[in-house]
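Bumping with the actual sequence this time:
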Amino acid sequence: MSTTTHDAFLGGQLTLEQPAKGYRAGVDPVLLAASVQADPGQSVLELGCGVGAAMLCLARRIPQLSLYGVEIQPEYADLCRKNAAANGINATVWSADLRALPNELTALTFDHVIANPPYFDRASGNASPLTDRDIAFAGATSMTDWIDTATRRLKPKGRLSLIHKADRLPDILRAMDSRLGSVAVYPITGRTGRTADRIIVRARKGGRTPFKLHAPIPLHDGPQHVADREDYRAEIADILRRGLEFKLPD
């Protein structure tokens, strides 16, 4: 990884070093972090933490979390450690395949597990010529592996939160078993009236409340883009620029 950039998140509250080419964190990990209902003192594990965008955005909003991350690509894991230190945030990060976690990690369980798994199915589409980008966007790990690993690492009543492409919802639901319940799906659309292209999914280990499919949440004002300026809805702008909570309905 030869060239990196230093990019501001949360209106400058957080600066992340990330590769100039390859996978670069965008809006999705920020929305994921903003949706997590954690309390100070709780423990959080991020699977596939990359350079740390989601876990470090979460740390900026909620103090005194015990943060942990696992990332298969050593270069990204190194950047995550550097980013945590540079932003004054304590975090423990392992470089490992989530299908073969180190004993030190498997000895732990967590109040929250969060993830932004690779969006594309390896069985469809072409691989990216950039290896790190290809791993980040497709990878070789099945959705079942992601969900099973997350479930195993949750404490009883612990919460799973993930963000993904809307068309992968069937894969996510198929990967969940009876250990997880209280599943809630929040479709995210670019604008009112458009098809959702992202989803946030929440589940609870040992949860028993019925499945909920919530109303779509638009990111932008108006039915279409009409000017050369940012037009995020005020709530979304506050999340992205001020680091506020993404207040999703129960």
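The tokens above came from a reply further down the thread. The chain is about 30% helix and 25% strand.
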